[in-house]
Amino acid sequence: MKIEILGPGCKNCSAMEAATGQALAELGMDVPVDKITDYGEIMSYGIMSTPALVIDGEVKLVGRVPSVRELTEILAGAAN
């Protein structure tokens, strides 16, 4: 599984990263999370607002920080 958080490094991007890490820990998954801060790469996903969560090349969330519970559900679904 490849997990990416897209954003310039703003407060919400950091919150998304922390929540994703917590959700992964709750699921017992040891998966690295890549931070993508390059605007060109972010735009290549067609994303117009950040933060965004991308799993295995598929955009899952855009423009908001989800709860850890929501992230846990998304990550568990993507692992299956």
Gyration radius, rounded: 11 Å
Q: How much is the average pLDDT?
A: 94
Portion in strands:
15-25%
- The secondary-structure class comes to alpha+beta
| Count of folded domains | 1
Please state the second-level CATH architecture.
3-Layer(aba) Sandwich
Indicate the percent of residues in helices.
40-55%
Count of helix runs? 3
Query: What is the number of beta strands?
Result: 4
Largest sheet: 4 strands, mixed
Order of helices and strands: EHEHEEH
Q: What spatial order of strands do you see in the largest sheet?
A: 2-1-3-4
Look at the structure and name the CATH superfamily. Glutaredoxin
Low-confidence segments: none
Describe the structure.
This protein is an alpha+beta fold. It has a single domain (3-79), classed as Glutaredoxin, CATH 3.40.30. It is 44% helix and 21% strand. It contains three helices and four strands; from the N terminus they run βαβαββα. Strands 2-1-3-4 form a four-stranded mixed β-sheet. Helix 1 packs across helix 3.
Secondary-structure topology with pairs:
Layout: E1 3-6, H1 11-27, E2 33-36, H2 39-44, E3 52-55, E4 58-62, H3 68-79
Parallel strand pairs: 1-2
Antiparallel strand pairs: 1-3, 3-4
Helix pairs in contact: 1-3
In short:
The chain is built from three helices and four strands; from the N terminus they run E-H-E-H-E-E-H.
Keywords:
Glutaredoxin, 3 helices, globular, 4-stranded mixed sheet, alpha+beta, 80 residues
